[in-house]
Specification:
One of its GO terms (molecular function) is ATP binding. The protein is of the alpha+beta class and about 500 residues long. It contains 20 helices and 8 strands.
């Protein structure tokens, strides 16, 4: 097989995400075979394109979707199947985001930061349209398509911080409630869009003939793309506790201790990056509340418990409020454009696309519950009702701008710590940010049928319960896929 030049635009941050083991190696030149970025082929996006794609039924993403192509290294045909699956899903999702942004009040969309996000989505759709009506049939085409996916991931890397600044500047023209509804829908949809692109990038790099790190992949056989099928939550907790502890010690000169109990050796299949984000946000809340209430000698207790396997009777009799634990639909994943309707004068709610209510996995999918218990004094009654809000409006412009001028992780939100400690934030000099941490963490948890519940005893402390459903028994998924392949033959 003739050598095919590797994509030029794929950057180090994409490589670190897609191939965890390669993060310890050098840098942006790993896959660069030239001195400049290769220009992507684009097509002008018309209003008809947006209207047509936005009218298509959406595919609610499941973890099973992400592992169905097989365990790396993929064969050429499996890699092409992954690319075509990715291509079949993304254009409609991008069109829905464009349409949702346009349904905001005109003066809000005119804000340069919100307008930039709209332009980013238009750019990504323009790079996908040349591929939209064709099938990827060769490895050369797959490599070019992977360039498009890398560009998409890079283009939307700072969406959260840019939107935060835009809505902060436009807050006179849109209510906090409407902003929260819009962001909740938009950021949930963003999770799926990025994950689809990142999964294909990861499968691409870990498969022949593309991957130059097969030995490192062999050292980490649990990964299927961005999913770790042998994820140990206790290790994630330990890592995040060390990171948050260093920040806490730098800020306050002290850090609480962590006790991990329950079943710390438990493993399940999930996305490490998602769990790391959620745990980091929850531990920041617990650390800050504990220290600022003067209870730093009281350890923060983290209990890890496998979720029980559900019988069909359990799923049929469960309380409707717990519906997120048993099915995934377009509305759950931010694809029903519910939030945008509040700006159109339409008080009715459209139902999700036909056939969108699907079981994410079999009812016996193993998962985990993680309880984080602190003695930080609890959440005050006046703050308790707002812990899920994107609470950037609690800052003045100078404080918010100071926070937003920092790195993207800070801008993605630490202000949820304010609600838990009852303290005010001081911008970049605080563990606090703009209030995106807790609601976005819940969005990550709920995306695949999990959730976050908070129980507070005011004057005592807070218990936070994180539940996550796993990908299921991956071996069974692979057996089913092989049987289907044999039947096709």
């Amino acid at each position: 097989m003739a050598h095919i030049q590797r994509p030029l635009i794929i950057q180090s941050h994409v490589i670190r995400l897609c191939c965890p083991r390669t993060a310890r190696r050098t840098s942006s030149t790993l896959f660069a075979r030239g001195n400049h970025h290769q220009k992507l082929n684009t097509k002008t996006v018309t209003e008809n394109d947006i209207s047509h794609l936005a009218s298509l039924p959406l595919h609610p993403l499941t973890l099973a979707d992400l592992v169905k192509h097989g365990r790396p290294p993929l064969t050429t045909q499996q890699l092409l199947t992954s690319a075509n699956f990715t291509l079949s899903i993304l254009p409609a999702r991008l069109a829905h985001r464009i349409q949702s942004l346009r349904n905001l009040p005109f003066i809000v969309v005119s804000n340069p930061h919100v307008s930039k996000i709209h332009s980013n989505y238009m750019h990504s759709l323009s790079t996908l349209l040349p591929w939209a009506e064709q099938e990827i049939k060769t490895l050369e085409e797959e490599i070019k398509f992977t360039e498009v996916m890398a560009d998409l991931v890079q283009t939307h890397a700072n969406t959260i911080s840019i939107l935060a600044r835009g809505f902060l500047e436009a807050r006179k023209y849109i209510t906090p409630k409407d902003v929260t509804r819009f962001l909740d829908e938009h950021l949930r949809a963003r999770i799926g869009t990025r994950l689809i692109a990142e999964q294909h990038l990861s499968l691409h790099f870990s498969s022949q003939p593309h991957c130059e790190f097969m030995q490192e992949q062999d050292d980490n056989p649990g990964y299927i793309g961005v999913i770790d099928t042998r994820l140990t939550p206790a290790r994630i907790v330990e890592h995040c506790a060390n990171v948050v502890g260093e920040i806490c010690e730098l800020k306050y000169g002290v850090r609480p201790t962590i006790i991990i109990n329950g079943e710390p050796e438990y493993e399940f299949a999930h996305i490490p990056v998602h769990l790391e984000y959620i745990i980091t946000e929850l531990l920041k809340n617990a650390f800050r509340a504990t220290v600022e209430s003067g209870m730093e000698r009281e350890p923060i207790e983290v209990t890890i418990a496998p979720l029980p396997e559900l019988s069909s009777e359990d799923t049929s009799t469960r309380d409707p409020e717990d519906v997120r634990n048993k099915k995934i639909d377009n509305e759950d994943q931010g694809n029903a454009d519910v939030a945008s309707q509040c700006f159109t004068g339409n008080n009715t709610t459209t139902s999700p696309a036909t056939g969108s209510n699907i079981l994410p996995l079999k009812h016996s999918t193993p998962g985990v519950t993680i309880r984080i218990r602190d003695r930080g004094g609890g959440i005050s009654p006046e703050n308790y009702g707002h812990i899920w809000d994107y609470s950037f409006t609690t800052f003045n412009d100078a404080q918010a701008s100071s926070t937003l001028s920092g790195n993207t992780h800070s801008a993605s939100g630490m202000d949820a710590l304010n609600a838990f400690s009852g303290a005010g934030g001081d911008g970049a000099n605080s563990l606090a940010g703009l209030g995106y941490g807790l609601p976005l963490g819940r969005a990550y948890a709920e995306y695949f049928g999990g959730g976050i519940a908070v129980q507070s005893l005011w004057g005592w402390g807070t218990d936070v319960y994180l539940s996550l459903r796993g990908v299921g028994r991956v071996e069974n998924v692979e057996v089913q896929r092989e049987e289907a392949r044999k039947r096709q033959r």
